């Protein structure tokens, strides 16, 4: 199943669903694309990193996020790694990386730059017992993700595509605070 | 020569002056007995008229040839070329859909994931096959009158659907639908909206409003149909739910074909494949039994008098 928007393309493995969106900006903030992938129905009002929901990960579930930062982060040490993470192992997933919200037992967070766009990849796994299989599925997911360079207008804060509204028109603002490596791009 | 023998003045003296002059000029030309400038003019006029008619007919024939060539080209592109010098194989039957599929021809159990865009232009992909729940896909349009009430009811009272049913609305893609209008209809909705023309094709949606209920665990459609009001939709869902076999009972009460999702055209195809694997091809005599014995093989069963168990 192909999913594509805002210069992010994913060929989802079986069992995954996803969405790629740009939340509506509040005030002077500049919203950037967020891609969410999950092995369960993604709740409508879920936060960027899995907060603001009553849904809990099942033992065999995966929730993964690609979160884009602003162009001012390009070249910073945190984003020095080039390319989408690949070949992740069970050692890369740690319990204390799991954020509050949707649950899960193990998490991973990786910062990188690809096609001149700084990203953070965040994923959480449903259970420790099935981590070997789940990590394989995460690798399978990442292997099928490609990111295109943004156009000049989008790079300076313009919309990457034609719209910059909520992923679902009905959803109230549920923007979460991403880990602040340099400059945050969402509302606190 | 025989006509000339009738008299040098024939047909210049038929009585009707105009007809006589016309035929005389046509027959004798400028060597006839009644040569005149008027007759010669008529001949020229006639020649002009005939030339125009011939030209028109030429254009008509050329147009017909062109049309014929277009038809042949179209047939060739469909794989049924006539007189194609390249291929030596006889053209086979080419299925051409001239109308929407009949209910019996529809693929009514296959399940497809949904992928498209949201009314706001974002990307969305929903997993339907293999989902651990029922998914109700409502194929709606922003413009249809019947859909308006359903949009409203779904936005306001989605909790009326059973807990284990996930509601998804699918409209046609942005090329056929107005995203702002769809966004306005879905304003306040707690369900995802996918704009995907491909989904309409996958599920062979005849028109809006149309509803499909998918059992993700069994990976098959368990109900589909048209409903003009939300209560009718709820009724369709409840009826379809009642027909879902319990997990433990399924194998005992349902056929293997049902358990495998083989129903309708799929079941027929599976039967054909099974027969071909067994070496029974179309036209095989065993497909046309002439007696009950051939069907049931009575002679092969031991009779009670045999004394065998």
Instruction: Tell me the strand percentage band of chain A.
Output: 25-35%
| Spatial extent as radius of gyration of chain B | 37 Å
Q: Main beta sheet of chain A, described?
A: 5 strands, antiparallel
Strand content of chain B: 5-15%
Oligomer: heterodimer
CATH class of the largest domain in chain B: Alpha Beta
As laid out across the biggest beta sheet of chain B, the strand order is: 5-4-3-6-7
What is the fold-level CATH name, i.e. the topology of the largest domain in chain B? Glutaredoxin
Give the name of the CATH architecture of the largest domain in chain B. 3-Layer(aba) Sandwich
Low-confidence residue ranges of chain B: 1-5, 247-255, 299-309
Shape annotation of chain B? elongated
List SSEs of chain B in N-to-C order.
HHHEEEHEHEHEEHHHHH
Element-level helix/strand string of chain A: EEEEEEEHEH
Main sheet of chain B, how many strands, which sense, barrel? Answer: 5 strands, mixed
Alpha-carbon Rg of chain A, integer: 15 Å
Largest interchain contact: A-B, 31 and 29 residues
Tally of helical segments of chain B: 11
Tell me the number of strands of chain B: 7
Helix content of chain A: under 10%
Quick take:
Chain A is mainly β and 188 residues long. Helices cover 9% and strands 26% of the residues of chain A.
Task: Identify the notable features of this structure and list them briefly.
heterodimer; A: 188 residues; mainly beta; 5-stranded antiparallel beta sheet; 3-stranded antiparallel beta sheet; 9% helix; disordered C terminus; B: 309 residues; alpha/beta; Glutaredoxin; 5-stranded mixed beta sheet; two-stranded antiparallel sheet; elongated; disordered N terminus
